[in-house]
Amino acid sequence: MAKRRRLQRHPGPKPKPKPNLRASGKDDATKKKEAPQPNKRRQTQTQQQHEEPTIPFDPNDRILLVGEADLSFAASIIQHHGCRNVTATVLEKNHAELTEKYPSADANIAVLVAERTKTDDSDSAAEPRQADAQQDDDDDQDDDDDSIQEEVHQVASAPPNNNNKLLYGIDATKLPSSVARPPHNRIVFNFPHVGGKSTDVNRQVRYNQELLVSFFGSALKALAPGGSIVVTLFEGEPYTLWNIRDLGRHAGLQVEKSFRFQARAYPGYKHARTLGVVRNRKGDVGGGWKGEERASRSYVLRRKGDVSEVKRKRPREDDSSDEDG
To answer: Biased-composition ranges for Basic and acidic residues (predicted)?
Structure first.
């Protein structure tokens, strides 16, 4: 009986050994490729932090600050930028109402008063006094000054080169003629907002547009020839929906340029909310609100004729600002 031949199975091709990626250097390359890319927003914020801040005023300018809330911006430009002719205004009707909303306001008021008394040779006390906003006015019915009372912090014997003061009860949309005379070289409104009138975005946009249009019309009466109005807003929606450039055109103004607002240029400045400080359930002032750290932009507006004149006199600046033609 014939023996069966046992079939021999031939092994298949041996698998190729895996290359030593570490030895070949490919492992590091792969790791680099798979490494997460840095956050673009963080890169942008870092670049902005190293940019030279733009300061839209000079120490000798006659400056009107509108809607100053806790007055930290006013205190900063006086203390750190040497401004000596600042009229800081708040909507709150008196000191008690202001400090109820912004407990830190007293420290900033002290800067305004101290800066006035520091160079005053006399020993007169810097006491607040009540002043009628219409005491120097003509019979101008359009200004509606009849019921406005302004509490003024100032020193009667202050030197002529130091005229900083604080006025209470000033509505940005109805600047009294006493504030407008003499006119100002710079009028600054940082972060205008009507507050929480509505949770509907479209209504909020409309309310804030109305606020700005009314402010522009009122501010023009207080703006010196060739002067500028500076408005600072947060970047992104809903603030971009306000269309500040179009609102300016509607009032006869034109955006000459815009630039990034950098809070670090104003030591001590803290963004204050329109509704006041944030309080917890116990009524204590809470933290967490850091509006000064949010991306913001300032818009410099001038009368349309003045923009053309400024551009003609100076070369085009090669910086981070953009001009509106």
So the answer is: 24-35, 305-318
> What is the distance between the alpha carbons of residues 21 and 30, in angstroms, rounded to a whole number?
9
Question: 256 and 302 in contact (C-beta within 8 Å)?
Answer: yes
pLDDT in tens, 174-205: 999 999 989 999 999 999 998 876 778 899 99
Q: In what order do the strands lie in the sheet with 223-234?
A: 128-132, 149-153, 165-167, 86-89, 63-66, 184-190, 223-234, 296-303, 253-260
Residues shown for the chain: 325
Summarize pLDDT for 247-288 with one digit per residue, the tens: 999 999 999 999 999 999 999 998 887 766 655 555 555 555
* 292 three-state secondary structure: helix
Rounded distance, CA 99 to CA 146, Å? 26
Tokens of 254: 């034109």
For the chain, what is the radius of gyration of the CA atoms?
A: 30
Task: Note whether 324 and 304 are within 8 A (CB).
Answer: no
